[in-house]
């Protein structure tokens, strides 16, 4: 692995603005107009969101993450991609370093919607 330099320092206040929560991936479906995106339906306890993630080519079987808890950034603005709306971002590990990505997930089951930080 090629180690990347550490990014510029941010303030604690900047970090505190990021809302990272545990969500349960209840559905994984195709995005018809995309070769990379899959649509995740994610349960955050008090609500469900659609989150698009570029995992179609990263995984032999994208369906394998269905039923798993993972971390998501939930306070990004909605973004339209390939004709679908994404209401957050999957927080995964490895992609930026060109490694086989894996989910960032709690080591034990947590309530959906629990906050990281």
From TrEMBL:
Gene3D superfamilies: Nucleic acid-binding proteins
Lineage: Bacteria, Pseudomonadati, Pseudomonadota, Gammaproteobacteria, Alteromonadales
Region forming the signal peptide: none
Keywords: RNA-binding, tRNA-binding
One Pfam family of this chain: tRNA_bind
Domain spans labelled TRNA-binding: 14-117
Record's protein name: tRNA-binding protein
InterPro entries referenced in this protein's UniProt entry, alphabetically: NA-bd_OB-fold, tRNA-bd_dom, Tyrosine-tRNA_ligase_regulator
């Amino acid at each position: 692995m090629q180690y990347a330099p550490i990014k510029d320092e941010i303030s604690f206040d900047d970090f505190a603005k990021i809302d990272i929560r545990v969500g349960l991936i209840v559905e994984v479906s195709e995005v018809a107009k995309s070769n990379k995106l899959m649509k995740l339906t994610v349960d955050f306890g008090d609500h469900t969101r659609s989150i698009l993630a570029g995992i179609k080519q990263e995984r032999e079987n994208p369906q394998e993450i269905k039923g798993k808890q993972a971390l998501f950034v939930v306070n990004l603005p909605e973004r339209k991609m390939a004709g679908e709306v994404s209401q957050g971002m999957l927080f995964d590990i490895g992609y930026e370093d060109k490694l086989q990505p894996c989910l960032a997930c709690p080591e034990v089951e947590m309530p959906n919607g629990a906050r990281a930080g």
